[in-house]
Amino acid sequence: xxxxxxxxxxxxxxxxxxxxxxxxxxxxxxxxxxxxxxxxxxxxxxxxxxxxxxxxxxxxxxxxxxxxxxxxxxxxxxxxxxxxxxxxxxxxxxxxxxxxxxxxxxxxxxxxxxxxxxxxxxxxxxxxxxxxxxxxxxxxxxxxxxxxxxxxxxxxxxxxxxxxxxxxxxxxxxxxxxxxxxxxxxxxxxxxxxxxxxxxxxxxxxxxxxxxxxxxxxxxxxxxxxxxxxxxxxxxxxxxxxxxxxxxxxxxxxxxxxxxxxxxxxxxxxxxxxxxxxxxxxxxxxxxxxxxxxxxxxxxxxxxxxxxxxxxxxxxxxxxxxxxxxxxxxxxxxxxxxxxxxxxxxxxxxxxxxxxxxxxxxxxxxxxxxxxxxxxxxxxxxxxxxxxxxxxxxxxxxxxxxxxxxxxxxxxxxxxxxxxxxxxxxxxxxxxxxxxxxxxxxxxxxxxxxxxxxxxxxxxxxxxxxxxxxxxxxxxxxxxxxxxxxxxxxxxxxxxxxxxxxxxxxxxxxxxxxxxxxxxxxxxxxxxxxxxxxxxxxxxxxxxxxxxxxxxxxxxxxxxxxxxxxxxxxxxxxxxxxxxxxxxxxxxxxxxxxxxxxxxxxxxxxxxxxxxxxxxxxxxxxxxxxxxxxxxxxxxxxxxxxxxxxxxxxxxxxxxxxxxxxxxxxxxxxxxxxxxxxxxxxxxxxxxxxxxxxxxxxxxxxxxxxxxxxxxxxxxxxxxxxxxxxxxxxxxxxxxxxxxxxxxxxxxxxxxxxxxxxxxx
Length: 761
Known about the structure:
Blueprint: H1 2-36, E1 39-44, E2 46-50, E3 54-59, E4 61-62, E5 65-70, E6 76-79, E7 86-87, E8 92-96, H2 102-124, H3 132-153, H4 157-193, H5 199-204, H6 212-263, H7 268-300, H8 304-331, H9 337-530, H10 539-564, E9 567-569, E10 574-579, E11 591-597, E12 603-609, H11 611-615, E13 623-625, E14 635-644, E15 654-662, E16 669-674, E17 679-686, E18 691-693, E19 696-706, E20 711-725, E21 729-734, E22 741-746, E23 755-758
Parallel strand pairs: 1-23
Antiparallel strand pairs: 1-22, 2-17, 3-16, 4-12, 5-11, 6-8, 7-10, 8-9, 10-11, 12-15, 13-16, 14-15, 17-21, 18-19, 19-20, 20-21, 20-23
């Protein structure tokens, strides 16, 4: 019997031990597994707002632009407009410099040759003696024209004079520069003398002239005193060495004393008091932590949140029933207005009750979370403070023991320091006496040095004054050279003025002769017709020549306009959109100098948005101007088109095109809001919660499963339909419960039925 009883006890003990080991192993296996689980953050599937409007800011541009160009290469002297200026047709935009042109010269030569051929044909075709006078006048005018052109082409004598005047001006400028450099060098030499008037000289204005002999005698007197100083200095040096040795020993002992004293960070009495204070602080912190843990536990076991959630579920159920009833009555063709009104009132009342229940639940949840956060934060702070207080207490006690040992060493070193200080004071007294002897000799030297300085200053004044005389003479010569330079500059300006006037006169005379020739030609033709000799002329040939002359003249006029005209005028009315050239730069043929917005043709604007944002919009979607504009201004915008972003290849972005009207100007910044107003939805989730695979879009909600050891959290797939979305959230429908936990983010990829670990957001 005793053996059976022993066996039963042994089996019972073994079973208990086995179950305990199994329990421990299970616990640790769960702990290890939890460490490897994917960490997820969750949010409620909840009622919310979806922002469907797209916002952005763009730049207003004109629908049509006109590009101002020129076909000539010219230097821009002045830009008369800037971006934003309003111009009218004919307003000056740019001022250009005049320019010579081989093309213009060729055109003029061609025009002259055609005129000569025409006149020759005209004269040869007529034999009427009454025309001799006109013919002679024509030949004389042509001869005068050729002579004037020759004068213009051979206009070199005056140019030679100008070049000679330029050379003379440069020579004068070089002479001025040379003399200025000479004066600069003299000023440097004068400064190198180092002469400065003494105080007496500065006050009285009198200067003392000292000869070289006087200066030398004063120097020898000073040297005799310096020999005296050397003897006193030798004695001082010996005593100073002894003093320094004693001082070095004193400093060494003082450093050792200070080193020990420096290691004593806090007096013994202070350390002992600090340790008592630290003990009291630790006791207080431990008491506070105990009470805070009780408060945290009490806050976590709050039933108000669950009650509020159940109330919301009830109100939501009632809301859905009221909504279904209202929808059914609306679809019933036999329902009355009174029935519809009552159903609508019940539906609105249910909706208000649901919203109020949700607000109550959300407030309780928020308050609970805030309270928990505050308590946990306070607990963490107290625990951290206790940790640091314990560490400080340990350090203080260690420091107390070290300080007691250092205090013994400090007392011994203090005795040694007092002995070294007495030795140093004795040596220092002897050194001070020697210093007095040396100082007296030095004072005598300083007195002689002041006297020598006065003598030296008088000698420097003689040299300084010599340089001043040389500089004055050089400045007089510089003034004369500047006068010569100015005379030659004036002469050059006069010659250049004469050149400009003469050249202009010759050009005007050539144009006058050309007009006279045309007049005489017309007179000859008229006279020929009157004389009945028209038939003798080769009408066809003359007509051909006249057309050639007209075309040649048009070419000359065109090129003169391009190469002698100094203005570029606006061919249209509008607003300057951009200016692409500056003063001093040269134009190139067909270069765009400015862009003019034709404001009468309307304005446009573009915005670049994401593909998701564009999907919410369509041409004609409502557009609201959100920029600040004056109350008396009216600006409207219309979404005219949605296009691919062709400017960036491979981009998934879209470009919104708007037609702008109203009180706007080119390059104006305009902010708009496009699309329908924001809407409310029963079920919304963050965009990060929306997942997609080959079977479509879905979310992962979290189910909990309790075990004897812990609670497990399992991800569950739910297929959903996205009915609306904005930049942060999406409205969804699907087989899920309101206010279920949905996975917002995860530390690693997860799938349906995967176990996960919850983390705080």
